[in-house]
Amino acid sequence: MPERPSRRRARGAGAALAAVALTGAAVLTGCGGGDTSPRSTAGAGSPSASPTPLWDASPASVGAVGDSITRGFDACSVLADCPEVSWATGTDAGVRSLAVRLLGPSKAASHSWNHAVSGARMAQLPEQMALAAKDRPELLTVMIGANDACRDSVELMTPVDGFRTSFEASMRQLRASAPKTQVYVSSVPDLKRLWSTGRENPLGKQIWKLGICRSMLGDADDMGAAAVARRDAVRERVVAYNEVLRDVCARDERCRYDGGAVFDYRFTGEQLSEWDWFHPGRDGQARLAEIAYRNVTAAGPPA
Hints:
The protein has helices spanning 13-22, 68-71, 98-103, 105-110, 125-135, 146-149, 160-177, 191-198, 202-208, 214-217, 225-250, 261-264, 282-296; strands at 62-66, 112-114, 139-143, 182-185, 255-257. By secondary structure, the protein is an alpha/beta fold. Helix 5 packs parallel to helix 7. The two termini are 27 Å apart.
């Protein structure tokens, strides 16, 4: 989730983390078709065909856009993407990604596409949407926003209005080429819970000092008024981002928001990467896949 450069490598603070790891410090870490039957001419008494629901709980292909979480960053080794364990489109048998749960292992490998980019913020989502639309997936997952809040300072966080503008543009970009693709939108994780959970691990806190998500994780043990206010401001921004995701998604009849399920999930250190105590590890990716599958296959959207 922290700021990452392009698809598979990070720079800056990440390079320092690699050095720590190499010296041994980081040992832990449908839309429906019409009725094709002949029409009766006997009058209005003939029953009409039931309309096909707009939300299909059994899509035949899955695409993914987003950031390092969906790329499986730091889930397998330090400073590397590991898309095979991605909660959305991975093929790892232990994770059982959303694609595997929906399509089966063999079809998931050939009918899913991952266009997420480590380090991406909402402003980069329209470009990812354009790429995803070319695949015409029946279901597209979206998980992005953590990097918009995880900045070097609170002042550098993406403004809520800008976040909204970029997400609206992303949906327009998708709909221009793939009007029938269903969209599953994950809420942004609770970064303050990440701080409260990860700070219990001494090594994790040392890794955070290399510059991971300073707006939330900087000076992890500082409980002074300024530090508390800073962390609260980050959490409030994440809540605001999730409200944007919910509202924009609600205006699209083929979009389903997770109802805050990822934000509300009570994860522990067992779900965090052993390399940075920030990204989801394999167990965390599996939990995200469970949440997504439950929401995608539900009879209706979360309340």
